[in-house]
Amino acid sequence: MIQRFHGMDRHKKFSTISVLNREGEEVQFLLACYDLRKYIEGLGPEDAVILEASSGTFWWADRIEAQGAAYYILDPNKFRIITDSWKKTDKYDARNMAKALWVHLVTGEFGIPCVYKPSAITRELRKLFSQYELLNRQIRMLKNNIQAILAENGIVIASKEVAHLLSQQQGPSLLKQLDISEASRIGIEMSQELLWRVLEKKEQLHREILLFGELLQQDVKRLITIKGITPLTALAFLADVGDVRRFKSLRRMNAYLGLVPRVKESGGKSRCGHINRQSRKLTRTILSQSIYHVSNSSPYLRRYYCELTDKRGCGRARIALIRKVCSIMRRMLITGEEFRWVEHRLFEGKLKEYEKILAEMREERESA
Length: 368
Known about the structure:
alpha/beta
């Protein structure tokens, strides 16, 4: 039975901690605990800890769990006692969290809005995908910089020539043929070199992601039976949702992925707005880049996308199709079935390439 209830307001250099006993009385208060690791080592099965979701919270939650203590990761945006507090200090936050934990576990008067803690492999994949998105942003910035320099020199070239200018094989020779100032030439050369370096790192990171997701390869093999879903896209979806069975309904999963529009209702009238972008967006971003191939994965999806495009426009149709594909992937993971309209020759090619990359990465790791 839980005997001590710890409310932790964690910061970069110290933590403020309030501890209550079974009767709800504060038996210990630390305004500034500088050695949180040592404090956690003193916990046991009779302790329960609540801490706010922030950077590094999952790591500390793992340490608390290893000591046999219970942990609760609080969603501060949904905890009204903190968000609506007129006196928000470290001391009050720690004591409010400890009191809320005591009320939840002892009296059961109200629940605590908690954040889902993904598995270790899911968290590692999310870290790698964060770096992958960072590289994509850098690539876009470098490409836009090259285009801006060309525009400043009054040069407008076709899309095909732009692709040649950005390629490592034809870029240097094509740059010499352009009539631009010396400063512009230096700027483009530097952007080209940085771009090629980042593209190289992106490809390397792509392979690392596939290797880190090797434990999920059975789910990956099942999802890539859908045309347009690559192993990278499948791992992005798995990293985003974690365990699909934790969602009680399909709508909750879609809301978590930012695929459900906001709804405002007043006076018996409801109005749908834009999708909620303050959510996990990795799956939505990656699937948007392959929407044409996904829409051609079955006659049903193609017809659904074309009809919705005619009625509501490309933007809404794209989100609706992504929502539909995510629901299909969720069902495939729950039932263990393959995609009904799988193109076996295309699937076998993707599977062969996927297994080849995994084998090469294993050899590289063993020889390193």
